[in-house]
Write a structure and sequence with these properties.
globular, 120 residues, single chain, mainly alpha
Length: 120
């Protein structure tokens, strides 16, 4: 079983660096307001992956994270986001809901995996 890497400032910085290209990408695509939600969504997926790092040796872990990220695309693309400033107190509940939904999906697959191993 893989140990969860220690959450350090450098990992947070790497996540920020990794999500930064989303801002100019959405600017180029004419969806400037979608940049921050895309970055926050990706950040929540990374945080959920870190939280459940113990599952990273499972064959379904990485494809499931890619599928989860793919499912976020319509939410980021089609919801009419605002270009105006939104306080963190408004964004935080949505980020937490996204984070817990990602954790729930990972936990569901863990449960299904364990259940299938019990029957075999």
């Amino acid at each position: 079983m893989s140990e969860r890497p220690e959450w350090k400032t450098r990992y947070v910085i790497w996540v920020m660096i990794a999500t930064f290209p989303l801002f100019p990408l959405f600017e180029y695509l004419g969806k400037r307001a979608s940049g921050p939600p895309a970055a926050f969504s990706l950040g929540m997926i990374v945080a959920a992956a870190w939280w459940r790092w113990d599952l990273s040796d499972q064959s379904w872990f990485w494809p499931l994270l890619i599928l989860t990220a793919t499912l976020h695309i319509p939410l980021v693309w089609y919801i009419p986001w605002t270009n105006t400033w939104v306080p963190a107190s408004i964004r935080l509940p949505f980020c937490l809901a996204d984070f817990y939904a990602d954790l729930w999906i990972l936990s569901l697959f863990e449960w299904l995996s364990r259940k299938s191993h019990q029957h075999s």
